[in-house]
Input
Amino acid sequence: MTSTTSLPIERPRKAIVRVGLVEDIDEMRQSWRRLISHCRDLECVCACATGEEALRELPACRPDVVLMDIYLPKMSGIECTGRLKILLPNTQILILTVAEEHDMVFRALEAGADGYLLKRIRPEDLRASILEALSGGAPMSSEIARRVVESFRQKSRSRDATINLTSREEEVLVLLSRGFSNKEIADQISVSIETVRSHLKRIYEKMHVRSRTEAVALFFSSPDGSTST
Amino acid sequence: VQRYLFILWLLVCVASCPSKVCGAGAASTDVGNPTLAEEWGVGSWIWTERTFDKQTCQFWRAFDVPSTSPVGKARLRITADNEFRVLLDGRVLGRGSDWRWLSDFDLTWLLPPGRHVLAVEAFNDALKAGVLAGFRAELNNGQVIEFCSDDSWRVVPEGQEGWENRKRAKATWPAARVVGTFGVTPWDTLPRGVTVLPAMRPIELRFWQQGWFQIAVLTICGLALLLCARLLAQLALQSKARNLLQHERARIARDIHDELGAGLTQLVLLGELAQNDLSEPSQQRVQIGHLCEKTRALLSSMDEVVWAVNSRRDSVRDFATHACKYAQTFLANTNIRCRLDVEPDLPELPFDLPSRRNLFLAAKEAINNAAKHSGATELVLRIHRESGWLAVAVEDNGAGFELSQAGEDRNGLSNMSQRMKEIGGHYKMVSAPGAGCKIDFRAPLPRIRSKFLSLRWLKRFRRGSAKKQLETNTTGPVPHTV
Output
């Protein structure tokens, strides 16, 4: 939320949220742009057609949130997410998908995304999701939570403790995977809903860090070091 | 008188074989072969035109055994100066290397009706050479076949292939020449004796040694091989067809997803925009809102169709994902909390389309029933593996009911049992008034699990490494457009 600090008159929550958009189909991009602009408190500051263009254009626009289509020509949405997250670490990136493809979504989350949205989302839900993502962790579906738990359990043996989940974080994930909502989790473990969100946010961050350290390891292990970032 | 007789006999003996010196030899001959005195049963000495040292000569003689009566007794006596080897119908009968001893072969068992061939290979070491032989066969009906070494034998020139088996002599084979009469110079000494050889039996071939059997076995083997090849080809075809089917299913799923899904999503967006443009609440706005909702519903059912069709979702894991998602989405619109209890790390066990679809629809029926009738506040969906079964339980904390009254009036129940029966599974319902309701579904998991698992692991490993390669690639995979 770096951009909101530059507007000291308005309180952060009331500020206009600057939204970036990456979508390759022209018609869809225009529709999304209009739809975002129609929503209260949202403003579409940049709409890009490709991942390459997004990496070029978006940093200058300093968006608070980026909506990223997962299937893009050439550079995929997942890779673009990973690179963009390095350029704009404070920007929340939400993945847009036509259907819930958990494999792709999970990979995008690992790469640096902070949540995902179905393209068929209702405008009011779109606004709510974006605001929620900004105020902490984006909601996580039970299926994704299950995968996150599994992936941390699988890999935790060989990793250092700083990027492992704390027991509280794992508890939150397990409850999520069992179908609890954020509010129910808050009740269950007697914390505020904000705390639950901050837990989620940290879980996302750990995933990103972990995947980045993996990427670095990959970079050093690959014979021609030019391939990964 | 006896003593005189003995001396006389001795004198006769000495007189009759003056060239032989060894008295003991003469004595043994006389003692061992009392039949000698009767008849020698041989013909004349025969040889070829020329005689020289270190000469090998081949003699051939055919004879017929009539089919009127079996052979009662048959023998061949033969000797040669200096050595011989005798064959009957190509089978070696024996050898001899001392012309003073007659070899007596018993051929009684070797002569079925038909033509037979005697072949003699004789070797002359030095000086005079000759072959002496006689054959006599008595048939059971009294008929006698006799022949002996004379000019009816043929001399086979060297270098003839298979001559010892030939039923007919070649015209170019010259007749044997009689070189001396039996008992006359130069072979004026009578044989010292007869070496009687044990009767030879025909070589009996066991059934597995016989040609017809071997041919039969070979034929059967050949047929079996052919059959195997055919079956293998069929299997290959089948697996190819199955692969093709899976590919096609994946393609159809992708097409639906890409084309229809993208189009419908666009429709939703356009509808929302149109709705926004009509800022005032109006009839059109409501209708466009309906349109959007209908389209969203269409997208949801499309998701379900894609899930069912997509062969890449043929796994237990994907089943669990889909069932949980359905329960959550469906119950989100009700007052029932949805709780999930899914076994962690469900493997990607294969779970074919009919199984996962029927099991899903059965569970869906149970969830719908609970939402409609139970009045519960919480529903738990459990998915676990239990020794070769996939167990899915739908539990609610609602009003419950008397099982005996549930009966047929609940349409869902017969549906469920039908679906579970189709996939070889079963279901069990536990309920009582005030105690909620629990329905257990069990579907069999594939038996050859470990094998499949290992293959899957291999595939996953391969896919994993392929994926890594893709990830390390800067341009990344070119995804299909949405």
Remarks:
- The longest helix of chain A spans residues 193-221.
